[in-house]
Design brief:
Largest sheet: none
GO biological process, one term: RNA modification
GO molecular function, one term: RNA binding
Shape: globular
Keywords: Repeat
Radius of gyration: 21 Å
Strand content: under 5%
Protein name: Pentacotripeptide-repeat region of PRORP domain-containing protein
Number of strands: 0
InterPro entries: E_motif, PPR_At4g14850-like_plant, PPR_rpt, TPR-like_helical_dom_sf
Helix content: over 70%
Order of helices and strands: HHHHHHHHH
Length: 171
């Protein structure tokens, strides 16, 4: 497929297929290591191990598998596991699963503004504006505010300006 796309001038698609192939390979390798850990070395996976697997599956778009893994965990999932799934739902626009996951997270941590923001954004993606307003109202009622974004570039600029090593910026 990669060669076919390349020969027909569709370089972007060739790169996409190549990246998908790499991602799938990493997922399979990660799953293999996860299973070997328990079966061969008798190391019981902790929540951090499960969170890594859910994150790996979620990033690859294999959200149903990630959710099934969560449901098979020998203990209740904590924030790290559910946040990994929620992030994947947002990335891959799985609105229904994302809303369910955010609801589960809010039962664990109702004062985390990030969860409300993601939930609100998911409702907006689905065109569910009444729910968007409701979630934003809950945030206001609970006194929660979204933390403003702060880029790495801004951090570098502040560090350099603080050292007075910059005389002129060209962008």
């Amino acid at each position: 497929m990669i060669t076919g796309y390349g020969l027909h001038g569709r370089g972007d698609e060739a790169i996409d297929v190549f990246n998908q192939m790499k991602t799938e390979g990493l997922v399979e390798e990660g799953m293999s290591l996860f299973l070997v850990m328990n079966e061969d070395y008798k190391i019981r996976p902790s929540e951090k191990h499960f969170a890594c697997m859910v994150d790996l599956l979620s990033r690859a778009g294999r959200l149903e598998e990630a959710e099934a893994l969560i449901n098979q965990m020998p203990f209740a999932p904590g924030n790290a596991v559910l946040e990994a799934l929620l992030s994947g739902c947002r990335t891959h626009k799985k609105i229904g699963m994302g809303i369910r996951t955010a609801d589960r997270l809010l039962t664990l941590d109702s004062m985390n503004p990030g969860i409300y923001v993601i939930l609100s954004n998911m409702y907006a993606l689905g065109g569910r504006w009444n729910e968007v307003d409701y979630v934003r109202g809950l945030m206001r009622k609970r006194g929660l505010r979204k933390t403003p974004g702060y880029s790495l570039l801004e951090e570098i600029i502040h560090i350099l300006i603080g050292k007075k090593s910059i005389k002129c910026w060209r962008i």
